[in-house]
Amino acid sequence: MAGNRTFTMIKPDGVESGNIGNILQKITDAGFVIKALKYTRLSEEQAKKFYEVHAERPFYGELVEYMTSGPIIAAILEKDNAVADFRALIGATDPAEAAEGTIRKLYAESKAKNAVHGSDSDENAVIEGEFHFSANEIF
Ligand code: ATP
Ligand code: MG
Question: Are 69 and 7 in contact, with CB atoms under 8 Å apart?
Fold first, then answer.
């Protein structure tokens, strides 16, 4: 059975472009309930750990630098089929390839600066949510 929670970040470009409100509105309009929410900034250590799976990729250094370049919003979201439905709502990694109406199509700048993160599995949704929030911060 598909899990009902996912984890998201509004990345530094999404915050910088003034779209926190617009992006959260799209998320709640799509039926996601916010279970945890935080405005914070990742340390280099946190960003490296969060994107550890990409450590061998050529863009890893650039990705860590970008993700630590400014504040982010972190959130845990709840909805039936949360992981897949949220990936559909945000669209393809590269906004040039993202479907019309998706968050990345509307608000992302580029494949690197793509406005939002969405967990790619139920297992990672739990790991990523616990990475950013303690139990008493999740409602
Ligand atoms: P995310 O995990 O952030 O939700 P994603 O699952 O769509 O994005 P991944 O393949 O997991 O994409 O890549 C993680 C992030 O690394 C991307 O969102 C993007 O910010 C960055 N990235 C991916 N590919 C490239 C690339 N070729 N050049 C630069 N940055 C990239
Ligand atoms: Mg990913």
Answer: no
